[in-house]
Amino acid sequence: MSRLDTSFVRSQFPAYAFDEWRDAAFFENAGGSLPCRQVVDRLGEYYRRLKVQPYHAYPAAQEAGAWMDAAYVRIAEYLGVTSDEVQFGPSTSQNAYVLAQAFRRRLRPGDEIVVTDQDHEANSGAWRRLAENGIVVREWRVQRDSGSLDPADLDALLGPRTRLVAFPQVSNLLGEVNPVTAICAKIRAAGAVSVVDGVSYAPHGLPDVPALGADIYLFSAYKTFGPHQGVMVIRRPLLDELGNEAHYFHAPLPHRRYVPAGPDHAQVAAMTGIAEYFDVLDAHHGGGDVSGRAARVRALLGDDAALLQPILEFVDAHPALRLLGPRSAHTRAGLVAFVPAATPPLALVETLGRDGVLTGSGNFYSTRLCEALGIDPALGVVRVSLAHYNTATDVDRLLTSLARALGS
């Protein structure tokens, strides 16, 4: 495999054809990545040529339906699952909410579920609300000094009535990668279902879901270079056991069961563009057989340690900044969050923005984690998040701008 060719990568993202993007260092990818050309082209063509009710008995409708069907197949290939196990919904938050309603009927008063205070609220709040139905909600709490989840702490929370454990693969503030495979094995041994929030991991390489052992895996397509859709994988046989949350006549259709309002035809059709982009990324970097393509693309997307480590070292060494999460790039995904000692996070982000360094501030819907770490959720943190189109030049601009803003 060749080293990542960022010039080629950027040529696949239409935003970089515009001056305001060529002249900017974009570090808010965890909030939403740039869409790749293949997705933009598909979305545009669908609206221009195929914006009809799909699957009807005329050519445009038949082609529109075929585009949608292909999206499930192609995304499934990169996730290592069958196409029927892939669901597309409006967002990860809504997918998790609908999923919780499906489990609401499955669970009985006194049954137990485990949630964390490390997760984005999408994979926490919807489950906590089940307490209204008599479900016992147990909290797997982070270590107060580091924010990490200790898998050993989960042992005391698992019992004969544990039915489900929801946790993140990567915290969207800490960046730390949790040992998902080991945790899922522990959950399965307890006879429970694992629900893994992969939103902050997936942009750095769509996961091999069977290898992780997750029963349910969630992530956002608009953070993986695609349209504004949430992706939810529900493995069999669980998929066949859960109820239908859509119109009753959609019960036989796996893709319709968890989208009560029906799919967004155009955006689902455009999802194929993510896989097409991964195909050309692999081919450009010397890819070979199709069977190994997903692993090769995963390696390309996740190879960001060389860019991430200088940011970590700068933040960790600066007396005016509090680094969240591990100090090593090899134990985390491509994001760094920190708390300025004397400057409100938003003010620092605005200063960086004037230098063309685009970052984000806030609690990023991880209010419980902020509270656990003694951070005011109303102020939150500064978050710097990378994607594979970021360059060493971007990192230099970030560190120069940070040093100037902090007076060092």
TrEMBL record:
GO molecular function, one term: transaminase activity
Record key words, sorted: Aminotransferase, Pyridoxal phosphate, Transferase
Pfam families: Aminotran_5
Record-linked InterPro entries: Aminotrans_V_dom (IPR000192), PyrdxlP-dep_Trfase (IPR015424), PyrdxlP-dep_Trfase_major (IPR015421), PyrdxlP-dep_Trfase_small (IPR015422)
Top-rank lineage group of the source organism: Bacteria
Domain Aminotransferase class V per the UniProt entry, residue ranges: 26-242, 305-398
Identification of the protein by name: Aminotransferase class V-fold PLP-dependent enzyme
